[in-house]
Recover the amino acids of this structure.
């Protein structure tokens, strides 16, 4: 008899039990009982090795030749009339993409060139006004060859980043940053780990240095980051404030009734009180109105008697995030905007929150 008959339900249960045993056996091989601490130790060791790589990079800046080379690189990037063409292959290519994004968003026009596409027409994007920044840990990636030849043929400045001083990239570059030859966190010393961390950190250091050299401000940053949370934190008051007819205002001799009508029209929960020259001298809010009505005041009386004097105000070029902080601190919902003492706008907390300001 070749095999015994097994009912369908029992067969399914039997197969599940066998599968469970195989999974259990596999799990025990991957994570032996009691080895959790060893795995945590491995993760910590990886971080320690990466930190050592960053310390090695920082130490290089104290070397006169390395620092001088870095300054020459910054100087060339400051003077470039075109763009920075950043390139690399493999993991260095991924770092090059990130470096491109950081440079572009911080005031240095940059574009990533994939070496595999360079020899198929994309070299046409490189102009004599550009400079090429080439990343390669080994300095011997064959895919970079056409780009090196193109730079030499058309006298395009070539900046290199490699850990091997005798490599093709190092020898071909007009300026070459010699990265520290760090220990990889990979136990086989094969997978790029620490070396790419160091490359990434150097790219950030280069971008920040260029930012400071250019005097790249928060205003400039906002121009390149109009959307998202970063953009929201850099919005100016003038971009969100109500202006012109939207701003509720009355003269100090206006009646309480007139002030109430103006508040209702603008729907901001208050109105500014100004003098004959348009200078802000007070504020009259919903709270002031409730207190006034409770006191059974005559609605024909002048609002100037009941307004809040020296109200909180901000300038139009203040950060909206600072205005929101002021509102929270003083527990108010409405701020008036003044320029040289004159009322120019009004800002409600709802407008700030709607814009994502925090």
């Amino acid at each position: 008899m070749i095999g015994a008959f097994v009912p369908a339900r029992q067969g399914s249960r039997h197969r599940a039990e066998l599968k469970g045993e195989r999974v259990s056996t596999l799990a025990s091989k991957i994570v032996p009982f009691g080895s959790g601490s060893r795995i945590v130790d491995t993760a910590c060791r990886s971080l320690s090795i990466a930190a050592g790589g960053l310390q090695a990079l920082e130490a290089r800046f104290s070397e006169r030749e390395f620092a001088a080379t870095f300054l020459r690189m910054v100087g060339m990037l400051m003077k470039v009339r075109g763009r920075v063409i950043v390139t690399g292959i493999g993991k260095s290519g991924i770092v090059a993409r990130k470096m491109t994004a950081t440079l572009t968003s911080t005031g240095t026009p940059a574009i990533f060139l994939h070496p595999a596409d360079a020899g198929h027409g994309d070299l046409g994007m490189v102009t004599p006004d550009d400079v090429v920044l080439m990343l390669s840990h080994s300095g011997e990636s064959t895919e970079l060859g056409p780009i090196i030849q193109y730079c030499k043929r058309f006298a395009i400045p070539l900046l290199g980043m490699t850990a091997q001083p005798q490599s093709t990239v190092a020898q071909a570059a007009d300026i070459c940053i010699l990265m520290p030859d760090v220990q990889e966190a990979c136990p086989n010393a094969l997978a790029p780990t620490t070396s790419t961390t160091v490359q990434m950190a150097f790219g950030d250091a280069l971008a920040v240095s260029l930012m400071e050299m250019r005097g790249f401000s928060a205003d400039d940053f906002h121009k390149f980051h109009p959307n998202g949370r970063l953009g929201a934190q850099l919005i100016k008051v003038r971009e969100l404030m109500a202006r012109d007819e939207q701003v509720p205002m009355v003269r100090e001799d206006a009646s309480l009734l007139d002030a109430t009508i103006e508040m209702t029209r603008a729907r901001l929960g208050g109105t500014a009180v100004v003098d004959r020259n348009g200078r802000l001298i007070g504020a009259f809010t919903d709270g002031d109105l409730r207190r006034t009505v409770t006191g059974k005041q005559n609605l024909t009386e002048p609002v100037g008697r009941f307004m809040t004097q020296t109200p909180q105000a901000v300038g139009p070029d203040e950060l909206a995030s600072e205005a929101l902080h002021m509102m929270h601190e003083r527990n108010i919902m409405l701020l008036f905007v003044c320029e040289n003492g004159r009322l120019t706008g009004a800002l409600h907390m709802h407008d700030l929150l709607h814009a994502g300001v925090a």
User: Anything to note?
Assistant: The longest strand covers residues 342-348. Confidence is low (pLDDT under 50) at residues 1-6. The two ends are 77 Å apart (CA to CA).
